[in-house]
Amino acid sequence: MSKIKKLAVLTSGGDAPGMNAAVRAVVRAALYHKLEVVGIERGYEGMINGDFKPMTSIDVRNVIQRGGTFLRSARSIEFKTEVGRAKAYEHAKANGIDALVVIGGDGTFKGAGLFSQEFEIPCVGIPGTIDNDMYGTDFTIGFDTALNTVVESIDKIKDTASSHDRTFFIEVMGRDAGFIALQAGIATGAEAILIPEVQGQQEKLTDFIANQVKLNKTSQIILVAEGNNVGGAAEIAKKVSTEFSNLQIRVNVLGHMQRGGSPTAFDRFLASRLGVAAVEALLDNQRSIMVGYKNHEVVHVPFNKTIKGHRNVSTELLKVADILTI
Ligand code: F6P
């Protein structure tokens, strides 16, 4: 029998489409299991400041289709300190919180891991980030929506690129991981994909473009993951333009639009399943774990594994990209 009577939920780090669907699922699952539930505003910042608000089923009505996070988010510097976490604990205790569900990326889980080690409040994490870079889960909430946004944008850029015989360098997000770039590159038929996980790309790119020119390919899309080791799209484009002065080069940094928009059906579905799983894991006396999604099933992964583990890009996908970008 669980001792948990009241739980809190927060969203932290970069927002991701589907976070609202996850909050909704946590709130409704908590109410279903006769628990009280509160939302914490602006992630750990709100916890430090005592910004808690009781949640009812009505409070999460009509949010499943909304992008962003209605609880708002923040990257809290103070929560990285013991003093900050102690303040957060005082507020949690004063509000009668017995357990915490955090929705975010690895920074969010690091914070929750430390917090639950220091204080008697069990925490469970739900992976929410567009980057899809969490170890232990095949998907993070928001990735599918961001990927579709990127694909839609590139398709549009391709129209103008081919009309004007131009080479476009398009930069996408992903922090130090190339999952968005790799999958969007395959899905849009990009001519080249530069990601942090692959070395020696600059030299290859020069040869590749020389070959494209020889083949009379008049327009091309070169996808650049923001964290790649060669530089940002603007930097790479500059280098290439000195070597290939005949190319008409343009740069497009997609930026934060990749984080917005209504979540796809997949992200809503994933968020709903993981939200329910997070509450049930807590009721099952689990703590310091992430609820993830592996091989189409919900899994539990200890925080220390997901924080320390490194998610590799699939070699099969790299090969597909290689084969299809000749
Ligand atoms: O982690 C999500 C993400 O969008 C990354 O892809 C990107 O590097 C970063 O957040 C941008 O953060 P901010 O919104 O703080 O500029």
Major sheet:
7 strands, mixed
Tell me the strand percentage band: 15-25%
| Helix/strand order, N-terminal first | EHEHEHEHEHEHEHEHEHEEHH
Low-confidence segments, ≥5 residues, pLDDT <50? none
Outline the fold blueprint.
Elements lengths: L5 E6 L7 H14 L3 E5 L2 H7 L2 E3 L27 H13 L4 E6 L1 H13 L4 E5 L15 H22 L2 E6 L6 H10 L3 E3 L6 H14 L5 E6 L7 H11 L5 E5 L11 H19 L5 E6 L2 E6 H6 L6 H10 L2
Parallel strand pairs: 1-2, 1-4, 4-5, 5-10, 6-8, 6-9, 7-8
Antiparallel strand pairs: 2-3, 10-11
Helix pairs in contact: 1-9, 2-3, 5-6, 6-11
The protein binds 6-O-phosphono-beta-D-fructofuranose.
Question: What's a quick, concise take on this entry?
Answer:
Helix content is 43%, strand content 17%.
Written overview of the protein:
It is built from eleven helices and eleven strands. It has a seven-stranded mixed β-sheet with strand order 3-2-1-4-5-10-11, with helices on both faces. It has a four-stranded parallel β-sheet with strand order 7-8-6-9, with helices on both faces. The mean pLDDT is 96. The chain is α/β, with parallel strands linked by helices. The N and C termini lie far apart (60 Å). Helix 1 (19-32) packs parallel to helix 9, helix 2 crosses helix 3 (82-94) and helix 5 (143-164) packs across helix 6 (179-188). It has helices at residues 19-32, 43-49, 82-94, 106-118, 143-164, 179-188, 201-214, 233-243, 265-283, 303-308, 315-324, and strands at 6-11, 36-40, 52-54, 99-104, 123-127, 167-172, 192-194, 220-225, 249-253, 289-294, 297-302. The structure holds 6-O-phosphono-beta-D-fructofuranose.
